[in-house]
Design goal:
The chain is α+β, with helices and mostly antiparallel strands. Helix content is 25%, strand content 35%.
């Protein structure tokens, strides 16, 4: 027999176990992420930032995150990659039929089902950090791809007026964040420091920025006291800075705009901006953005390469050389604004 108090306790327990759902507005992509605990959603919150809300509505891609035992990859899966990921340890990526398996042995696994428009992430109770690692951007990539949107590793800055978006491409560690913040301080509008999304439209390729938190290095903060960051640095000398927190100092750009210029950033002993051929620009973009597997390009990577090829063919490109620090940034901002 269940007395009234028992029923109330059962109802409260059921409520506590209801999944927490966040929905993210990513242009044509509407992503719903459900988890049993708030902390399992923190990776998506940092990556997608202010595009999130609580209204689940009609989604185009659904992700569930739960804790539990990590199952082995099916025996018939084709191994596409096995090896270390920077700062995350050993990982494997495999394909079985239409499904993809991203696994950190014994710690976490994500099963992506593009046909079913969803992904299931299982995190070992002993490895909660995995919920904030590479599983997050990979899941977002597949969600965006289904609506013909592709991620590009680049900073994005809007030109004055309505003249379009500038993409700044460079390998990690070259200074995209520092350069993007400095250009924004000089009058351009800040879309993103590291991740932009591309989509084809009738008149060309448009881009918008994923509003992930910025990883700002202490050296950048020292050059930009207007960031007003607290002295709280991780072992890499960085701290996570929410994108909205820089709004008092620079103008943020949330809209999608046509890509008007491509810049390939490098460091040198002088400031220079020189025309760059489409082939060289494509080679740099592909090297930084297209991941090859033991079976060649996966369908998503093939579509990404096609998007980058169209971008390099359609949009004028320049090689941007800057010395270390902020020297020459003002001149470049003026040149871009002309």
């Amino acid at each position: 027999m269940c007395i009234s108090g028992d029923r109330d306790d059962a109802r409260m327990t059921s409520t506590r176990r209801m999944p927490i759902t966040r929905c993210y507005d990513l242009g044509p992509t509407r992503l719903a992420v459900a988890a049993g605990r708030d902390d399992l959603l923190e990776g998506f919150e940092r990556f997608l930032g202010e595009r999130g809300g609580l209204d689940s509505g009609a989604c185009t891609f659904s992700i569930t995150i739960r804790t539990g035992g990590v199952e082995p990859v099916p025996d018939d899966a084709e191994l596409l990659y096995s090896g270390p990921l920077q700062d995350e340890g050993d990982c494997s990526f495999a394909r079985a039929g239409q499904r993809y398996f991203m696994s950190f042995p014994g710690e976490a696994q994500m099963v992506i089902d593009p046909v079913g428009r969803g992904a299931d992430i299982v995190i070992s109770p002993d490895s909660p950090r995995r919920a904030s690692g590479s599983l997050v951007p990979i899941a977002v990539e597949y969600a965006l791809d289904l609506e013909d949107q592709q991620v590009v590793h680049a900073a994005g800055l809007a030109l004055p007026g309505e003249r379009g978006m500038v993409l700044v491409s460079a390998p990690s560690g070259t200074g995209k964040t520092t350069t993007a913040l400095a250009l924004a301080r000089c009058g351009l509008r800040f879309a993103a420091d590291d991740v932009m999304v591309l989509r084809r439209e009738r008149d060309g390729i448009v881009a918008w920025g994923l509003p992930r938190a910025l990883n700002v290095h202490r050296d950048t903060a020292a050059m930009m006291p207007w960031l007003a960051l607290p002295p709280e640095w991780n072992r890499l000398g960085e701290q996570s800075v929410p994108r909205r927190s820089i709004a008092p100092a620079v103008v943020l750009e949330d809209r999608e705009l046509p890509v008007a210029r491509l810049l390939l950033l490098q460091r040198g002993d002088r400031t220079a901006i020189e025309p760059l051929g489409a082939t060289e620009m494509l080679a740099a973009l592909a090297a930084d953005n297209v991941r090859y597997s033991t079976a060649g390009l996966t369908p998503l990577q093939d579509r990404r390469f096609g998007m980058l090829a169209d971008l390099a063919r359609q949009v004028p490109a320049w090689r941007l050389t800057l010395p270390e620090g902020l020297e020459g940034v003002g001149m470049i901002a003026t040149h871009l604004g002309e």
